[in-house]
Amino acid sequence: MKTTALLVLSVISVAAAAERTLPGTQPLETTNDLSREMVAGIDKFLTRETAAAVSRRSNYWRRDFSSPAAYEKSVEENRDSFRTIIGAVDKRLPLTALEFMNSTSQSSLVAETDSYAVHAVRWPVFQGVHGEGLLVQAKGGPKARAVALPDADQTPEMLLGLAPGIPASSQFARRLAESGCEVLIPTLIDRGDTWSGNARLKRFTNQPHREWIYRQAYEMGRHVIGYEVAKVQSAVDYLARDGKPVGVIGYGEGALIAFYATAVDSRIQVTAISGYFNSRQQLWEEPIYRNVFNLLTEFGDAEIASLIAPRTLIVEYSEPPKVEGPPASRQGRGGAAPGKIALPDFNAADGEVRRAHALTRPLNWQIQSIHGNEGSVMPVGSEPFVRAFLRGSGTTAGPAQSAPADLRKGFSPEERQERQVHELVEHTQRLLRLSESVRNERFWKTLKLGELDAFKASTGAHRTNFWQNVIGQLPKATVAPNARARVAYDKEAWTGYDVVLDVFPDVFAWGVLLLPKDLKPGERRPVVVTQHGLEGVPHDTITDDPKGGGYGYYKAFAARLAERGFVVFSPHNPYRGRDAFRVLQRKANPLGTSLFSIIIAQHDRILDWLSEQPFVDPQRIGFYGLSYGGKTAMRVPAVLDRYALSICSADFNEWILKNVTTESPYSYMFTIEYEMPEWNLGHTFNYAEMAALIAPRPFMVERGHDDGVAPDEWVAYEFARVRRLYAKLGIPERTEIEFFNGPHSINGVGTFKFLHRHLNWPEPK
Asked: Which portions of the chain are predicted below pLDDT 50?
């Protein structure tokens, strides 16, 4: 009797479980926070990819060791690639002479000893951009010529002993001067934040000046690193004017610039770097102004060193500059990215040296590694370090002398720094102003605006470029979906299921599926994928509780669409957790990928699964996203053409302007969203170009007049280009914009009509 009762209970229990399980899926049993698990899983995936990148780099190199000349030629393609990714691509102005910085009140002469004179100088690099610093002229002619680069937070004066800040034993520029060298000492952009902002707008940040330049330049395919490499190259133009060899020597950020400049400029014959050489596998932890898109795919420091071989490279293992983060956040100043500089473990740094030797073994070339006993640190700019550099330059060290005295009255290094910062800002802003004309040439003039098939064919190469080189393309999902589901909602008109699908090891897609209860057996309905914004979760798009956190933005648009009879899927995108998710962007970028590389892979898997469901018409799957979900609406359907249409709500605007301009309060330059810049997007794809990749599929913009994302004028200007395209294609009815009196939120009027019309589903009566 007991056995029979237990059997009956078991059957009832199984039946109840079956009712609460989505057919074709396994039970989803976890009680963990799926949002946090998603971010953590992606982090593990990117960490593994970073480690794996080292062994994959050989695929990008074809070294020919048959002769030094053959080797140089064989790595030229890698050199060009490196030059491009660090943004050292602007054509430099010709240079044969430096400008002495004289005025009616001040001579260019800064200091003078019996053996050398020091002058304040500048030199042109690009239109409106100068290098600026000190020139040491050896009396009686130079024994060698060098560019000496201090750390970003050191001045040229410190490196010569003209100002306090660097111990005498570390003033390597002074030692070169005492040894009869002609030395040019540039000023680097520092880590202060004085000019990181716009006084006219009363908008300021605590971004280091290097980050302030980085953010705007990165979007334009430029970099603070590339700008300073160009300044060094222009300095070499002058120093190598008569064909004599030139060396570069640097510490900290100056070492990075010296190292990179030598990798791209084969005229530099000897290079010495202190406080900078490591594997770069932890690049994501370093300050964001060292972030280089796609760097680790092809280059670690060992590979960069191999671009210098067989020239002389000297590496000193010393304490790097102490950088714990950006300037402190304070009233009126915030938003800077975290990032620190730490001394690498000697074994890791030395391992990278040994790896460089292994890569170039047939050349019989060795990095001159200078370190203390048993891998202890050396004093910065030690005497062995300087002497090795001088030997490589064909001379020897001279006797030490007393420090020179600065002859100037009232000199302000801050004024020089301000000039340097503002010049690079203006150069980058000029690139912004010209970027639309570049996109017109590279994109719009290549499109075929006649027959639709011809048009789609003409966008193919651009779509590939967008996905592979801007977003970063990952392979198709590498694991089975292993779909798991559980009931999350049971409403009068629909049932909601949490659905989890595997994508890559540790990476999964998660969303909430809303199924109308009036679905008939065998009926295939259109689907609307409803995407939440920044820091949101799928529930935010569904809740109809006016007191709910997401209701004010989303107005329960996912639920409203399900009530109208659409199948709805509300995915979770991993832009949640503040720095926790922004770290994903930091880890992805050096691999040539981005947060959207992951998101696209997740959506591709979601589309796979939805298309297989018996209640879905795979030809009628539309996308509708708000805010960061609107950002998704521009990028995901642009590459995944299985989305039949796309609606961008509360995001569409002149996206490049919003990311780069320093002249508008709407700009991301003043906010915490340091993950926003996308490499070289400014010269490739604004939102109109992304919409062109969506065309000829239907595309709509939803815009509240009071939305603080951007002004109406930016939105209307960019959409006008989209409207013109659809008109030229003969399909103006496939694109719309709805302005409404409201804030940053879903309106759900014109967009709902748009979905019904283009997904061919009747509106409720």
From this structure: 1-18
